Write the structure tokens for this entry.
Amino acid sequence: MNIAALVANVIQLLIILALFFIRGLDLGPLAIFLLFLLMPIPFINFLALFFTKRSIAADSADDSTGNGLIKREALRILYEEDRCPVLTVGETAYAVRDLSEGGVRIRAGAQAPFKKKVNGEIRLLNGDPIRFKATILRREEGEVVFKFTEPVGTAILMEEKRVLAAAHP
């Protein structure tokens, strides 16, 4: 779209300049005045295209992952030590430290045997299970952070947040 506008502005400017150079003063004073009024429009459009926030070549600079989430803008639930959901991978259960639309952070030792891609289930405080597929984003001191391949719905997290708030008035 922006490239088409750029090409249209350049063609418009070339037509105006060609009329001046070919016909010159034969156009008459009214036509010359109107062409002078039209000349700044391609320049203004051209400058506007280059001073927009998005690049002409970039389709989506904000969303490089393609999952629709903007980093750190997702809903996040932080859990306390004594009351938290349980993440199960295979036969092993882990305590969830925080949960967001895009991922989950669990308590796990540095030697926790996780592959790069993980399938599992999170049992929320309200009893609802969330089945997920994720990749390991990073390992920290006693924690592992997973990034979901499909985001968790906001409605599910809002319900979990409501249950958590009701338990701690």
Remarks:
- The two ends are 53 Å apart (CA to CA).
- The first strand starts at residue 76 and ends at 78.
- The longest helix spans residues 2-23.
- Strands lie at 76-78, 86-89, 92-100, 103-107, 117-123, 129-140, 143-148.
